[in-house]
Amino acid sequence: MAILARANRRHFLRHPLQLLLAIVGVALGVAMVVSIDLAAESTHRAFALSMQALTGRYTHHITGGPAGLPESLFTRLRVVEGLRESAPAIEGYATANGGTLTLTLAGFDPFSERNLRSRFVKAAKGDEAVRLLTEPNTAMLSALTARRLGVHPGDGMEITVNGQPHQLIVVAYVEGNEAPDPALEGLVIADIATVQELLGRVGVLDRIDLILGDNPEQERHIRKLLPPGAELESAAGRNSATQNMTAAFELNLRAMSLLALLVGTFLIYNTMAFSVLQRRELLATLRILGATRGQLLREILLEAALLGLFGGLLGLAFGVLAAQGLLQMVTRTINDIYFVLTVTEFMLDPMILLRGLALGVAAAVIAALGPALEAAWATPLASRARSGVENTARRGLPWLAVGGILAMAIATGLLQADSPGLIPAIAGVFLLLLGYGLLTPMLLLGFAAFTVGLARLGNAWLVRLAVRGVAASVSRAGLAIAALTIAVAVSVGVGSMIESFRGTIAEWLDQILQADIYVATPSTAARFSPPLPDGLQQQLAKIEGVDRTGTGRRMVIPTSLGESELLALDPPYLDKPGFRFKHADGKALWLGFPTMEAVFVSEPYAQRHGLQVGDRVELASDSGLVALPVAGIFFDYRSDQGLIVMHRSLYDRYWKDGVNTSVGLYLQPGADGGAVKREVERVLAGGRQPLLVRSNREIRAASLETFERTFAITQVLRLLAVGVAFVGILSALMAFQYERRREIAVLRATGLTPMQAGWLVLLQTGFMGLTAGLLSIPLGLAVAVALVRVINLRSFGWTMDLMVSLPPLFTAVALAVVAALLAGLYPAYQVMRVEPSASLREE
Amino acid sequence: MNFKFWLSGIIFTLTLISCSQQEQTGEGVAAELRAPDYAGFERAYAPKPFNFPADHGPHPDFRDEWWYVTGNLDGPDGRRFGFQITFFRHGMKRGNPDRPSNWAGQDANMAHFALTDVEGQKYTSFQRISRSAIGLAGAQAEPFKVWLDDWRMEAAAGGGFPWHFRASQDGIELDLEFDPRKPPVLNGNQGLSQKSAEPGNASYYYSITRMGAKGMLKLSGKEIPVNGLAWLDREWSTSMLADYQAGWDWFSLQLDDGTDLMYFRLRHKDGTDDPTSSGVLIAEDGHSTRLAHDEVSVAALGSWESPAGGRYPSGWRLTIKPTRRIIEVRPVLADQEFRHDARYWEGAVDVFDAATGKPNGRGYVELTGYAPGKVEKSGQ
Fold it and tell me: What is the pLDDT of residue B24?
């Protein structure tokens, strides 16, 4: 046994690059899986903690409409109804640090909190508590955020709320004397009076939290007391509704991690297989010297486990580093499209690390099992010949192909099924990739025969020699090409999806941005739009060059389908529809818009709630519940939660707030947009509230920038997949070329120059790259179709126009060829350098 | 007579930090808030004229104030109950807050409600806290009303007596009407009750020592008609005890012959009595006689150990020298300790003639400064 171990150790010492490659291969595979898992998990936990920090142990809550709840309702519940276990809440957002840091402003009543979630009450000690209760602008700040901002208890800090600057006095940490808590990051807690004043919402509460027993009678009674627009819900419902918002996003992230797992396992398999393969002669010799099969097998598997362990540990380190970068991107995406997530603490879940390590070790052992069995069971002499293995492999190819076709057929079925489920769709994409991979060796043989024919015509003997060589060892080459094909195809598919999406969004922006200049309040989160000052529309309409004005009122209201975003529009022109409608004549619908006793809903909204044209939606308005039919479904990409649109005149009949959140200015033909915008800014400069004035071009650019940011993580993952595949192809090609050393030595001995030998190697790898590149195009397009038409539609409810342009396809082929050529450089250099006699002597 | 406990209670409430080491009275914690001045609140230096019903209402120029009713009730079949109701007001800052939000009130409020079921040998207590904002809690003079959440005590429809009290929690509901049988008594020097040597360490203090109490008690789902006698204590101040004082023993006794006795003994930390200890004897016709500290002697007959720590005296022999009367006072139940943010013993007692051993009255006793400030909640 000792001799065995020593022999193997010597082997690795003599081939340090091999050792490095094997370890890096495992490390990369593990790193990829671990980093995505960690980022996804951290986001998930951050979300849960953010929710928990602000909710606590209440069982129910009452929420108001956009105008909030009158605080007198709370008095009524307490003093008349005797609901002692109740607490008021008001929440909003502020920015600090020059707008770079978003803070959650949570207003609470320490006296009421006593009954519900005392942890916040803990923080302030006697005189601090008194300051919080009696002095304006006093607050407690999360210790971690305070540290980040360099703020200490007693200090003042500048914050901006709804565009207005305020000086906040930090009297204590939210954690009190306890250890800083990542769950509280970004949290500012102040007395309810202070937060009402900061937000400019005196007299109003957002929520009343309650602890109620399991008593339907009591719930019914409370519901009767609620003003129009207010709702009583169970706390579990609220949390899970918010959690559901990101479910699709998280699932996509997990699918990416699964893909990483697939590519990572392939990589590990390749490196391990190569390291065993390279030692076949050595192992055969050991067998001849008396080592038993069991000993050999044990030795190789142990070695694989050790390699897996080292590589895995290294991979964990890489993974943790990469995950922190990913987390930033994921959080950014969630903030852009879902809600403000103030917790950004990175969380290291030991389970994920353990799983990653186990994956590394298991993949390494399983990958080594095949070659180890092959090496241990082959008769020592037969080990020298590759042809035996190759013959067996070739006989299996038709079966592989049949399996592949079958898998692809199932995949097509899954993807075309009517079920709205996302998981079957993702399974379909994976099956598609797998099936195509199984088919690849057959396709390779076909393509090789074709190329050989072509080379014969051109009398390119070196090409013929190279391609035949590849075809002859289809078991190795096929796997490498399949892996590269899948990686490149995923890259093509994801790239096409992003391109399609971007194109669709750009068109959509052109359609909805009909006004020339928009005025709105700066809002911190997409779901939170503060109102504009009164009379602004009239004031702006008088500006020279402005033809007409339109308004928008955006807010979140309770509906029979849960909290929904409502947009009330008053467009001044009706000749050009503001939306593109699904299966409907947009022009006719739009002409009827001002008098319509109905709403439009966006496609994601309809998809999410299974709505059809003609269905009714119940909205909680200021005048009670209103049931309105859906008159049309329009394409919309602003949120995957979807939104409801109604005309302003209909809105004003049921809602009494009379405020706007945006004003659009339509300019006279030939008016100077720049001059009007400057004039608008001059008019607004006198106001107390800073407002955003943007031309439609600026909004378009900003929206597309948000889009890019949203997909940044997808792009990164796509590159990662290609990167891992590249390392995989490198080791596969090295294995491939290693096996051909003797053949090339014979060729060298019979007159092939070193230069020609080098070319031969490069031709072979180049051919493999080209094959992978070409094969990846149909698969990539299929993946793109699946992503655009199925996965994204089911995840987010967005219909997109499939847009495919040629350059990315060429890039894909070029990428595959370049990756293969790069991977061939080292083997080429080796065959040029090595004396043929040396290679032959090793036999 | 419960100011420190109330004050420390509200601070505990705000901090929820155990301050057991902070002196038994909680004065250490109180000092945190008080130092270095009295936050601009007025102090009680000299007697002032009392006006009713105005003085039934709040006195926001003083930091602390309470409405305190205790009493003994009889139900049918000889069932007997004791009750305690207290509404506290604590000014966090003097004056009008002058802020846009209606929540920016300056008063913190607390209420205590306890019931002693003598037959069931069970004492139950509740505590509530809130703030004087948006009508959640508060007090007003005309018509008289003091409330916290749905616990309230208020004047009758015309603005006078009987006062109506109602509170309920966790299946216990008490609904009573209080009708005075005697006029208010101004305690101390015309209502100025000195609590320690320093001028200003005093309160304005009046009592209605005998009120008829009649109404309904709901207990374990049963409605029990109850009838008995209650005692109202009203006190407002900004500062009372000095550092060297530990607490007090307070007796409010209603004797069968129509006489009422109030006596408080202020204890020093060294165990001696403070010379400002005093009392009052109210005859059946409402005529009152002051009792100086050397005119009453109090001797403890036994003691009781709180399960939460601390040893209280239990049972007393009181000698009232001017009338040469000797009485024995015994708790109807040993454990009548209020264990919430503040801790004190406040319980129903029986009074016996020391010579004959025959019962001749009932009352309430309050004992403070015997146990560490804060313990975990028990009644809730």
Answer: 31
**The pLDDT of residue B175 is above 80:** yes
Q: Over the stretch A186-195, which tens digit does the pLDDT of each residue have?
A: 889 899 999 9
Please spell the DSSP secondary structure of B201-260, one letter per residue.
-EEEEEEEEEEEEEEEEEETTEEEEEEEEEEEEEEEEEE---TTEEEEEEEEEEETTS-E
H or E element that contains B337: strand B337-339
Which of the residues B4, B15, B132, B380 would you substitute to probe the A interface, choosing the one with the greatest number of A C-beta atoms within 10 Å? B15
Per-position DSSP letters for A206-217, written without gaps between them: SEEEE---S-HH
Cα angle, residue A72 at apex, residues A68 and A78 outer, rounded to 5°:
115
Which chain B residues are within 8 Å of A136, Cβ to Cβ?
99, 104
Written as one letter, the residue type at B202 is: A
Q: What angle do CA A142, A144, A150 make, to 5 degrees?
A: 100
E strand or H helix at A709? helix A696-710
**Beta carbons of A84 and B128 less than 8 Å apart:** yes
Beta strands in B49-186 (DSSP E): 64-74, 80-91, 107-117, 122-131, 137-140, 145-148, 151-154, 163-169, 172-180, 185-186
Interchain proximity B16–A121, CB inside 8 Å: yes
Per-domain residue ranges for chain B? 3-367
Using the predicted structure, report yes or no on whether residue A370 has a pLDDT greater than 70. Answer: yes
**Quick check: B251 and B363 in contact, CB under 8 A?**
yes
Burial class (CB in 10 A: 0-12, 13-18, 19+), A528: middle
User: What's CA B370's distance to the chain center, in Å?
Assistant: 16
Interchain CB distance below 8 Å, A192 and B103: yes
Against a cut of 0.90, is the pTM above it?
Answer: no
**pLDDT reading at A456 higher than 80:** yes
Which chain B residues have a beta carbon less than 8 Å from that of A191? Answer: 103-104
Locate A376 and state its tokens. 């241990």
Contact between residue A488 and residue A772 where contact means Cβ atoms under 8 Å apart = yes
pLDDT at residue B258 above 90?
A: yes
Give domain B3-367's CATH architecture.
Beta Barrel (2.40)
- Mean local confidence (pLDDT), A159-187: 83
User: Tokens in use for A234?
Assistant: 């169970």
* Tens of pLDDT, residues A617-642: 988 887 778 899 999 999 887 766 78
* Structure-token match 């195009």, residue found: A777
Higher pLDDT, B175 or A253: B175
* Residue A601, phi-psi category: left (phi > 0), alpha (psi -120 to 50), beta (remainder): beta
Question: CA–CA distance from A58 to each of A116, A234, A597 (Å)?
Answer: 6, 9, 39
Which pLDDT does position B20 carry in this prediction?
Answer: 27
* Distance of alpha carbon A451 from alpha carbon A650, whole angstroms: 69
Q: Where are the domains of chain A?
A: 1-57+238-379, 69-205, 440-513+707-843, 522-690
A124 touches chain B (CB under 8 A): yes
Q: What one-letter code names the amino acid at A549?
A: T
Contact B32 A127 (CB under 8 A): yes
CA angle B103, B104, B105 (to 5 degrees): 95
Task: Give the tokens for residue A320.
Answer: 């943790």
Gap between the Cα atoms of A331 and A345, Å rounded: 10
pLDDT tens for residues A698-753? 878 877 776 776 666 677 767 776 776 677 677 777 777 777 777 788 888 888 88
> pLDDT digits over A667-690, tens only?
888 888 888 888 888 887 766 666
Please confirm whether the linkage preceding B53 is cis (ω < 30° from 0): yes
- CA separation for the pair A697, A509 (Å, rounded): 10
Q: Which helix (H) or strand (E) holds A82?
A: none
**Residue A11 to residue A803: CA distance in whole angstroms:** 52
